[in-house]
């Protein structure tokens, strides 16, 4: 058994917490794991990607290549299109229905693609699209979008709820725990 | 107990467990977290030095003084520190000295793709290369042992994928070491010709001894699988190869990449049918194999450029390409941008408007080179903005000096800008230099530096005054502007360009991401006043876009810096409270 999960988005959207949570859950389950992220230049509003790989055997390469991801979690719509080639043919794409225009689009030198969801479904991708930002606001803070997304992803994975709750406790500061539990539950409710 | 650690965190853990007492480094992606994590251990003295040369000299001094010491940097940092490195190889150490170097194949955050293994070979010091976090911790400890056993600095070669990947590490206890005795010994530590000549003989003998060690070193490991294919690899390429080939191949994993073993490679080669050397960047291992008469397939098949992956290796070996989803349209790029509220933006907007030649440097402000600001002509290496501008203006004359500026960040100015400024002042140059003082080392993720008033450990300390440094080296015209004030900034630059003497403008405003910087509420667009002229887009703020003919401000990004209000001719951008 091995699983390859990618978390993609725009620098500054909080994907680090998401990969940290996932790392925690996977370790509790006793798997070998590698988490790979790129720091530095790309943090400044650029496209960012984190790879999480786990297995009941040893995990060798820390990166995921095209066609290898079981699940891709995209914090933004355009980023889902950028990375969709990394998804396995029977993989799941979980997408936050939020658009952040990149500089070339703002400048008018490039177009933000229209009807992204339709085009992704047209490829035959197993797409779970929902407004995680809205749910996070409902839970009490837009910053919890990442945890809402993790709630939705938990549905596509086999780990028991207690492990996710424990990971939440370990990864978020105590004073934000209630808010994040709410956010996680809202994500979980997205079937 | 096992912990999930970044490669860089694991190196820091290794330093701690090895009883390392002194760390002096200069930040640089992907090496920075080694030193940041080491600084969290109370038992370790850790500092940011002004540059890598100073850092390495501090660490060497500490090692000579009897404490195990470490110094970390990115690959190009070794260019700066090469001078002490080459002679530290001759002097050797007392307590162990380990130099951590992080390469960046693929140039995720770098200006070139140099392979630091050449430094180990030409400075004749051993180099270890871990392949995951567990290796990173154990190799860091081993590096100290080798350093003391062979009386040499030891280099630890990291790379982006190893530094910035987390994997499980078995945590151990710290070994407390007493301060080693220091004995005056000019023949060892005074490297003048009379002493250096016999030392060179020692260095060559040491290399032979190290090569012998490499033959049986526990970190040069063979993993037998099918012997039709043999693979020699180190670091991340070993991991990629193992993922692709599993037990369909046999592997020689080199944990020590300088010096390289001879018999070990020859014996391995004799037992496999086809032998591949898989190495990122240069052909260091391959060249060695050829030299010792071992036939391998290397750079004929694998690229010289960029990062490898399991997919690349699979394609080169089997030509197989997976059938994958392809999005039916071109996906717009998402390049990194200056953050909303970044103080560099106002300055680059003005430089763009003034149409001057901008001799650039390295830092967040290098993003001023991208559209729409497009206000940078050159970027070479840290410090080159000032000295490069001096040369440019000497070549092109006084008129050029009236139409050109150098831009350099505060950390970069301290790192290697001051010497360039001295050159201008001493040699009667008339160039204009702009120091972008955002009170932090931004690019590498907010490290303190000598101008910020805080140490790496967070203690308050003396603050280097950029103004006074400029005055002291002979620059009489030094002035400070607020880059949020476009008019003031433009006027200052025009005035300083007009005078026929050297000047420094300090563009001062702290980074908008610093915790102590208070943000204003997001600005609002008065849609009745907005004419959709798009002038506000010219400064490249990620918080502003134009949708359906009207400007829109993303209030999750806007920090209310107000620079855009200075651009709008219709008064359409205002504070939330003022407009509806
Ligand atoms: C020799 C060398 N060392 C380190 C680096 C990594 N690096 C690039 S820019 C920079 C410092 C940037 O800080 P500053 O000059 O204050 O500008 P800011 O990013 O804050 O705008 C560093 C450490 C490098 N490129 N070259």
In CATH terms, what is the fold-level topology of chain A? Pyruvate-ferredoxin Oxidoreductase, domain 3
- As for the number of domains of chain B, it is 4
What's the helix count of chain B?
20
The fraction of residues in strands of chain B falls at 15-25%
Ligand inventory: thiamine diphosphate
The CATH superfamily of the largest domain in chain B turns out to be Thiamin diphosphate (ThDP)-binding fold, Pyr/PP domains
CATH fold annotation of the largest domain in chain B: Rossmann fold
Q: How much β-strand is present in the residues of chain A?
A: 15-25%
Number of strands of chain B: 22
Structural class by sheet pairing and helices of chain B = alpha/beta
Biggest chain contact: A-B, 60 and 58 residues
pLDDT average of chain A, as an integer?
94
User: Are there runs of chain A of 5+ residues with pLDDT below 50, and where?
Assistant: none
Global shape of chain B: globular
CATH homologous superfamily caption of chain A: Pyruvate-ferredoxin oxidoreductase, PFOR, domain III
Q: Separation of termini of chain B? A: 59 Å
Largest sheet of chain B: 7 strands, mixed
Give the termini separation of chain A: 24 Å
Structure notes:
The complex is a heterodimer of chains A (191) and B (580). Chain A has helices at 15-28, 77-83, 103-106, 116-122, 132-139, 145-155, 161-171, 177-188; strands at 2-10, 32-37, 47-55, 69-74, 87-96, 126-130. By secondary structure, chain A is α/β, with parallel strands linked by helices. The model of chain A has no long low-confidence stretch (mean pLDDT 94). Chain B contains 20 helices and 22 strands. In chain B, the strands form six sheets. Chain B has a seven-stranded mixed β-sheet. Chain B is globular and about 80 Å long. The termini of chain B are far apart. The model of chain B has no long low-confidence stretch (mean pLDDT 97). At the A-B interface, β2, α2, α3 and α4 of A face β8, α10 and β20 of B. β2 of chain A pairs antiparallel with β8 (165-170) of chain B. Bound molecules: thiamine diphosphate. Residues 26-28, 52, 74, 76-77, 80, 362-365, 382, 409-412, 436, 438, 440-444 of chain B line the site of thiamine diphosphate.
């Amino acid at each position: 058994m091995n699983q390859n999960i990618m978390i993609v988005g725009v620098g500054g959207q909080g994907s680090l917490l998401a990969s940290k949570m996932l790392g925690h859950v996977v370790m509790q389950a006793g798997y070998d794991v590698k988490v790979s992220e790129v720091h530095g230049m790309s943090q400044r509003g650029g496209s960012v990607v984190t790879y999480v790989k786990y297995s009941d055997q040893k995990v060798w390469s820390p990166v995921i290549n095209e066609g290898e991801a079981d699940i891709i979690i995209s914090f933004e719509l355009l980023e889902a299109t950028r990375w969709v080639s990394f998804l396995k043919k029977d993989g799941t794409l979980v997408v936050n229905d939020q658009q952040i225009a990149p500089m070339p689009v703002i400048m008018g030198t490039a177009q933000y693609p229209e009807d992204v969801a339709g085009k992704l479904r047209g490829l035959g991708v197993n797409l779970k699209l929902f407004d995680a930002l809205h749910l996070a606001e409902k839970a009490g803070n837009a910053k919890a979008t990442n945890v809402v997304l993790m709630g939705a992803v938990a549905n596509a994975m086999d780990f028991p709820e207690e492990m996710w709750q424990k990971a939440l406790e370990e990864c978020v500061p105590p004073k934000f725990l209630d808010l994040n539990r709410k956010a996680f539950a809202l994500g979980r409710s997205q079937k | 107990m096992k912990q999930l650690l970044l490669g860089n965190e694991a190196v820091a853990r290794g330093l701690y467990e090895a009883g390392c007492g002194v760390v002096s480094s200069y930040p640089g992606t992907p090496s920075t977290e080694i030193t940041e994590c080491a600084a969290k251990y109370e038992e370790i003295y850790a500092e940011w030095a002004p540059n890598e040369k100073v850092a390495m000299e501090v660490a060497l001094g500490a090692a000579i003084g009897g404490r195990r010491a470490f110094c970390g940097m990115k690959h190009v940092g070794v260019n700066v520190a090469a001078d002490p490195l080459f002679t530290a190889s001759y002097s050797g150490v007392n307590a162990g000295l380990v130099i951590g170097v992080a390469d960046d194949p693929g140039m995720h955050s770098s200006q070139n793709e140099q392979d630091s293994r050449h430094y180990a070979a030409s400075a004749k010091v051993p180099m270890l290369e871990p392949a995951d976090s567990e290796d990173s911790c154990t190799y860091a400890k081993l590096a100290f042992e080798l350093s003391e056993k062979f009386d040499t600095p030891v280099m630890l070669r990291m790379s982006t994928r190893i530094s910035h990947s987390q994997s499980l590490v078995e945590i151990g206890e710290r070994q407390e070491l007493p301060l080693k005795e220091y004995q005056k010994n000019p023949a060892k530590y005074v490297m003048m010709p009379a002493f250096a000549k016999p030392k060179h003989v020692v260095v060559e003998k040491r290399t032979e001894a190290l090569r012998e060690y490499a033959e049986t070193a526990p970190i040069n490991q063979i993993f037998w699988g099918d012997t039709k294919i043999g693979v020699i690899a180190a670091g991340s390429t070993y991991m990629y190869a193992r993922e692709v080939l599993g037990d369909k191949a046999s592997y020689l994993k080199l944990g020590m990449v300088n010096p390289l073993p001879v018999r070990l490679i020859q014996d391995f080669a004799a037992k496999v049918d086809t032998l591949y050397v898989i190495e990122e960047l240069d052909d260091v291992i391959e060249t060695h194999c050829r030299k010792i008469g071992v036939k391998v397939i290397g750079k004929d098949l694998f690229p010289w450029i960029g990062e490898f992956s399991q997919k690349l290796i699979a394609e080169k070996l089997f030509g197989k390409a997976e059938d994958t989803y392809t999005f039916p349209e071109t996906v717009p790029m998402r390049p990194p941008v200056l953050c909303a509220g970044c103080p560099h933006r106002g300055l680059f907007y003005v430089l763009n408007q003034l149409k001057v030649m901008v001799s650039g440097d390295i830092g967040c402000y290098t993003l001023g080179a991208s559209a729409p600001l497009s206000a940078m002509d050159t970027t070479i290496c840290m410090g080159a903005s000032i000295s490069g501008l001096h040369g440019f203006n000497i070549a092109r004359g006084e008129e050029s000096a009236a139409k050109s500026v150098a831009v350099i960040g505060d950390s970069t100015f301290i790192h290697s800008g001051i010497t360039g400024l001295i050159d201008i002042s001493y040699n009667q140059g008339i160039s204009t230099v702009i120091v972008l003082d955002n009170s932090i080392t931004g690019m590498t993720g907010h490290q303190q530096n000598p101008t910020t008033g805080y140490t790496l450990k967070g203690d308050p300390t003396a603050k280097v005054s950029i103004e006074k440094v400029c005055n002291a080296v002979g620059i009489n015209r030094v002035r400070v502007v607020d880059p949020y004030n476009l008019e003031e900034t433009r006027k200052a630059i025009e005035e300083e360009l007009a005078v026929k003497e050297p000047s420094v403008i300090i563009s001062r405003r702290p980074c908008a991401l610093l915790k102590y910087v208070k943000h204003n509420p997001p600005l609002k667009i008065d849609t009745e006043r907005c004419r959709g002229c798009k002038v506000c887009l010219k400064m490249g703020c990620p918080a502003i876009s134009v949708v359906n003919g009207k400007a829109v401000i993303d209030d999750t990004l806007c920090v209310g810096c107000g620079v855009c209000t200075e651009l709008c001719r219709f008064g359409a951008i205002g504070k939330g409270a003022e407009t509806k």
